[in-house]
Design brief:
This protein is an alpha+beta fold. It contains eleven helices and 27 strands. Strand 3 and strand 4 form a beta hairpin.
């Protein structure tokens, strides 16, 4: 079957897989390692930066029920937040919960386990915006036993996704809103289906928990569990999910049991930053392409453990400093490599002054820093100079490049460093030198001086560019894709960054939250709350909410 699947189809199907452009951080520290003796929790979610913001701040109270935090407009409960007893935060697990299936077709029938089944067809009318206004168009939705059919490049492929069936996330979140301890919070997560999320929980009694809740399919071929990183033969029933009913109600018996999902009850500390959460698990939950590079997670653990190993206890100021931290682990790693191999790298006289700036740098991505600007451009050029020749020849674009972690760990004589367009055989050091020359070209051509010249906040309203005054002001920014204080200036169609920062804790009298959103809680341009939190968010300041217990 694989011989009939062309390269273009596989590339197109990548659009249905998870992008790594966005992400999130969360961590908790138990009372064992905090000054107050009570657990503390922090989270910031890296999503699209928009006007109005993605999240809506909400505080609900009815009788004994009280909860506060953020939600999506229209959702009647708090999605991430705190009540008098617990607080919780999430990051995307990044699990592989989508599969593709091919079939043998005969007209409007497809072969499935020796039987010819009819393709289910349903006509629907949709509205399409044209130059002449909205026009109605009738389309035909086709479905198989595995899910909807999509057509491209002469092929028809069925798609299975855990979100194509009835799910119960709202019940899970509602039960979290009402939970009175970490145990009840974990029980609430049994109802959470899609997308799989890394939940962390603390409670007023000192308990902590980590649970990557969600539905994880187990694929089988001839009765043997297999990874999901392939296109399956649907006609043979390969790779299908037992207990999954697309467009119906699933029974989920062919998914990883909730109790077997790797989790921690009462950890002293835990951090997730979309990195791979576990190695060598008996079930496949995703390959390396589904998880973020480990740099943010490395830095979070580094800061927590440095405090603990020094004999200190963490406090609110420590958590706030962590959320505003702009130290770049990739900068530390790549610049240290340059420093240790200066004699091998054929830098041009022109680029040496930029190299020296990097060697004298503290690896902090601040808007007033020239080395931050140099490194940001250099690392993109290093990636491009390494992979462009092979990838462009194969019809692939920059979005198909591997992760930075891969570039970091390539051997100095890896074939990827050899430029197939030249007769010479280049190695890692040649490509680093070439990338630094390209960096110098851009800096001098665009007359760049510091990181703020390229790392700018541009948050736009959906009415832009027709109504420019509804956009937020433009600001120079700290941070990068790889720092805890997260900002991604080149994200398309929207920039991305910390869409909600939150720190929570408890003491004997009250529950306390510190939180901020990137903008304002109102979509009304004439409201004083249209963008009143934006500058506070940039400066990593917070609004405090305290509720007596």
């Amino acid at each position: 079957m694989s011989d009939t699947i062309n390269r273009s189809l596989i590339d197109w199907l990548k659009n249905f897989e998870r992008s790594d452009e966005a992400g999130s951080n969360n961590w908790l520290v138990s009372g064992k390692y905090t000054e107050t003796g009570k657990p503390m929790l922090a989270i910031d979610l890296h999503l699209a930066l928009r006007v109005p913001p993605v999240w809506y701040r909400m505080h609900l109270k009815s009788g004994d029920f009280e909860v506060w935090g953020v939600t999506f407009p229209g959702v009647p409960v708090v999605v991430i937040g705190q009540n008098r007893f617990i607080s919780w935060g999430v990051t995307n697990m990044g699990a592989d919960v989508i599969d593709f299936y091919t079939y043998r077709f005969n007209g409007d029938k497809y072969l499935y386990k020796g039987k010819w089944l009819d393709i289910q067809k349903e006509k629907r009318a949709i509205q399409i915006l044209t130059d002449d206004g909205l026009k109605e168009k009738e389309i035909t939705v086709e479905k198989t036993i595995h899910g909807p059919l999509i057509s491209k490049y002469g092929m028809r492929i069925a798609v299975a996704w855990t979100g194509f069936t009835a799910t119960t996330e709202l019940k899970s979140i509602f039960e979290l809103n009402r939970a009175r301890n970490a145990g009840e919070a974990v029980s609430a997560l049994r109802w959470f289906c899609v997308p799989a999320q890394n939940f962390i929980v603390i409670d007023r009694f000192g308990n902590t928990a980590y649970y990557p809740a969600g539905k994880y399919p187990i694929r089988y071929i001839n009765g043997t569990p297999v990874p999901g990183n392939m296109i399956f033969n649907g006609s043979r029933g390969e790779g299908e999910w037992r207990g999954f009913t697309p467009y119906g109600v699933s029974t989920w018996e062919g998914f990883i049991p909730f109790e077997e999902i790797p989790h921690l009850i009462n950890p002293d500390y835990i951090a997730t930053a979309n990195q791979r959460p576990i190695e060598n698990f008996k079930y496949y939950v995703g390959d390396s392409g589904y998880f973020a590079e480990p740099y943010r997670g490395m830095r979070i653990y580094e800061m927590i453990e440095k405090k603990i190993q020094s004999g200190g206890k963490l406090n609110l100021d420590d958590f706030m400093e962590m959320q505003k931290d702009v130290y770049s682990k990739p900068a530390e790693i790549f610049v240290s490599e340059i420093r240790g191999n200066l004699s091998k790298i054929p830098f041009s006289d022109r680029s040496r002054k930029y190299v020296q700036e990097l060697l004298n740098w503290d690896y902090r991505m601040t808007r007033d820093s020239e080395p931050s600007m140099i490194f940001s451009i250099f690392i993109r050029e290093f990636m491009n100079q390494t992979f462009y020749d092979e990838f462009s020849q194969a019809g692939l674009s920059k979005r198909d490049y591997p992760k930075l972690w891969i570039l970091q760990n390539l051997d100095e004589n890896s074939r990827w460093f050899d430029d197939i367009r030249t007769p010479e055989k280049e190695n890692r050091w040649d490509i680093i030198a070439r990338a630094m020359d390209r960096t110098a070209d851009r800096i001098e051509k665009e007359n760049l001086h510091d990181y703020g010249d390229i790392n700018k906040l541009h948050v736009t309203h959906p009415f832009s560019p027709k109504v420019l005054f509804m956009n937020y002001p433009v600001y120079e920014m700290n941070g990068s894709k790889y720092t805890i204080y997260n900002f991604r200036y080149s994200y398309k169609p929207d920039q991305a960054g910390s869409s909600w920062r939150m720190i929570t804790t408890f003491d004997d009298r009250k529950a306390t939250m510190y939180g901020i959103i990137p903008g304002g809680n109102s979509g009304n341009f004439f409201s004083r709350h249209y963008s009143d939190e934006l500058k506070m968010w940039i400066d990593c300041r917070y609004i405090r909410t305290e509720v007596e217990r």
